[in-house]
Design brief:
The complex is a heterodimer.
Chain A lengths: L4 E7 L3 H10 L6 E4 L16 E2 L10 H20 L3 E2 L3 E5 L2 H16 L6 E4 H7 L9 E5 L3 E3 L1 H14 L3 E3 L4 E7 L2 E6 L4 E9 L5 H7 L8 E10 L10 E4 L9 E4 L5 E4 L3 E2 L10 H14 L8 E11 L6 E4 L6 E5 L5 H18 L25 H10 L6 E3 L4 E2 H9 L5 H8 L12 H12 L18 E2 L10
Parallel strand pairs in A: 1-2, 1-12, 2-9, 5-14, 12-20
Antiparallel strand pairs in A: 3-8, 4-8, 5-7, 6-7, 10-11, 11-12, 13-16, 13-17, 13-18, 15-16, 19-20, 21-22
Helix pairs in contact in A: 1-5, 1-8, 2-8, 10-11, 10-12
Chain B lengths: L1 E10 L3 H12 L4 E4 L15 E3 L8 E2 H12 L5 E3 L2 E9 L2 E8 L3 E12 L3 E3 L2 H4 L9 E3 H11 L1 E2 L3 E5 L3 H12 L3 E6 L9 H8 L6 E2 L2 E7 L6 E8 L2 E2 L5 E4 L2 E4 L3 E3 L2 H5 L24 E3 L10 H21 L6 E5 L3 E5 L2 E2 L5 E7 L3 E9 L4 E10 L5 E5 L1 H4 L10 E5 L1
Parallel strand pairs in B: 1-2, 1-8, 2-5, 8-21, 10-19, 12-13, 12-19, 13-14, 22-29
Antiparallel strand pairs in B: 3-4, 6-7, 7-8, 9-20, 15-16, 16-17, 16-18, 22-24, 23-25, 25-28, 26-27, 26-29
Helix pairs in contact in B: 1-2, 1-8, 4-5, 5-6
Classes of the chains: A alpha+beta, B alpha/beta.
Chain lengths: ~475, ~425
Amino acid sequence: MAETLFDLAIIGAGVTGSSIAYQLSAYDTKVVVLEKMEDISFGVTKANSGIIHAGFHHKPDSLKAHLEIQGNLMYDELKQTLDFPFKRVGILVAAFNYEEMKMVEKLYHQGVENNVPRIEIVSRERILDLEPKLSQDVVGGLYAPTGGIIEPYRFVFALMESALKNGVELRRNFMVSQCKQKDGVFTILSADNQAVRARRVVNAAGLYSDEVSRIFKAEEFQIIPRKGEEYLLERNASGFPRHVIFPVPVKNSKGVLVIPTVEGTMMIGPTAEEIDDKEDFSTTRDNLERVFTLAMKMVPMISKKEIITSFAGLRPAMKGNDFLIKISDKTPHFIQAAAIQSPGLTAAPAIGLYVLDLLKQDGMELVKKIDHDPKLEKKPMIREFDFSDADKLISDDRRYGNIVCRCENVSEAEIIEAIKNGHHTLDGIKFYTRAGMGRCQGGFCAYKIIKILMRETGKSAYQLTKRGGNSFLLSHQLGEGKVDTPS
Amino acid sequence: MIEKKYHSIVIGGGAAGLSAAYEISKSGFSVALIEREESLGGILMQCIHNGFGLQEYKEELTGPEYAERAIAKMAGSGVEIITSTTVSDLIDENGTKTAHCYSAVHGALKLGADTIVLAMGCRERNRGNIGTAGTRPAGIFTAGSAQRLINIEGFIPGKRVVIIGSGDIGLIMARRMTWVGAKVLAVVEILPYASGLTRNITQCLNDFNIPLYTSHIVSRIYGHDRVEKVDITPLVDGAPQDEDTFSIECDTILLSVGLIPENELSCKIGVEINQDTKGPYVHSNYMTNVKGVFACGNVLHVHDIVDFVTEEARRCAVNVVDYLRRKILPTEFRIQPGANVIYLVPNHYVPGEEINLYLRTFIVKNNAQLIVETSDKVVLEKKLLHVRPSEMIKVRIGEKDLARLSADEFKDLKVSIV
């Protein structure tokens, strides 16, 4: 069978790769996205804190600062087009002494220089008025009303859905392991010997972008995973703030934040710890204590009793701490979009545009599609409906009346929609719909989702996984002898 | 949209809801019983082991048998049973209550009532709630969800199992997992004693030589895709002894680390929650702070035995009927926890009327003494052979005991266990 020759292969379907795919989908060109995992956004993006930064944290001369502020400004229009959970709730930096106020002043000037809109230094009285749950020990701080919160995975799902709708292709479970270049064409082989041919390649492989760069004989660099542990607290948490609250930053880290999530739960974290293992997603007792101590210094009402889950993410950091986005000096037609750590999510839309420009510079012919239609229709979610409107929704499709996840109010129809969009793991459905993300953490709904997945996909219970790979959910069936999980 | 009105709406078709709905309807009032699952019975339906009904029916039944008896009474009772229906909101407007419900069978329903009985039961605490360190692989289940998977769905979660917590469901599941061919390698309990009933320790662990590690914690979970191993660390005076940590290789972890009453719906109608029970504060008649809204069963406080749930719900229903007839609240005084008492229910009493009290204690003790007193007079002293946190204590303070107080001596009561 003659393989399609793609104009571009994007390696990695996190927020960076998906943003690039989204931009490219407006052009008459053949694009494929290669993702090593079972679902998109399952790498670095999944464990992101979900902050759209205002743009005062980074020095004006860095690529980061430039793309951060540009990215921030693109989010309103993106939300209009793609309908994902995003709110500009504003960011506060809380200072607790005179030295910290000095630092706040520095951040303010940096913000002004970066053109952060409406940024201001606030007094103790004003910051407590803006955020009554802050500790009385606060002395003042910084306020950036354009900062916001987002559900990072749902942003990625939306970007990719729009891209797929406009002709981009996606290959899941495609782990790039080899590459051959001949006559201006890359032949990319996966670990299980699938092949994809493309004229150009973008490396958006997150934690593994250093290895991908090596496979393509491009720049040598090292991604240093910087681990961040986060704690999720239940809905109606006592410390739930109105804004995202930052401490005054220390070297390399924006510190432990107190975050009201878009969907009404609350999050505190992350830690920042350089580690060696790119697959170490463990959390520790010591960091739990540390995160709570730091968060409670800012918001004393936060309670450990309200934890519903914890998780860890790894930032793909690099020496020098700036993004690495450029046309490779070593391998022709290979573009690096690597070392995208914080504020990568904020910058992602701008990174998409930036890479588009690099591709043009590299000689890629980009002609706008006449029939490009990026808009995604709003998908009904029973929890967002008024009771009277819900009646009509349920009359039209009864499955909206079957509430599968009681904690987050997710209906059977929404789960089927997730499955139709290619999310066939328990975590994929969770991130797409929120089913299993609430206070009981799937205790009541996991078996219901397993049954819906079996019915809709025709898979057996033993093929179903939490998040792909060998993360099988069940072992064998009662009365049918032992059926070993496939390995 | 379906719109209907009742004297009473009972939310939850488990042991508490079944008992309450039946009793209210027996007095001639119209009752709707709303259940989110397709069938009635609640969690009893997955509890296929025996040991239910000794108090209520004087015989030993399985969970489904116990439920069947309550469900059988529904036929001809006049209770309108609405299954496959989730209550999404509760509203109180000038004394009239409205329940907004969603259902794949009935569509949206708007049900009005004079009274509401909250009987939604409880949920299981999970890994996040106890903050266990480590990774987040597949293979971690709450004991109750594993019970559902095996007993109703027919799926077995894993083969080499470590159970965190020695609550009753965990103990029952240790035996159940063994019976379906899995190997239960350890039950790990943070407290110096088991949290479950003594009979379950004997019948579910000892009879199968399953090791119980008291004063131990699972300090870390390993595994990238699926659970691979846990670290277990002993505690001395509550402090982890890291150097004595040992590991067990396993593919499955079950959690039996406590239950939390499900009161998110209660809060929507303004019900005030007691942080000790995580259930509503209730008057002597099981009414919450919201007039006309009552609570009983595990949504009120976590019970150890279902028979007491049925009994409490019946008592609650009698009061619902009384309220529907008279709509007045008698003068009451508070009943407060004294020494060594975690919580007690109800939180109020009416002078002269007998009090049926459920409470739990912090202490494990033989020959303990229960004392009920006002600030200046002892009302009741009772010897208790054995007390422990896992076993609910039930006390009846009769009219005779209360006769020790003259009319002007009635005031707040304190209940202690020493």
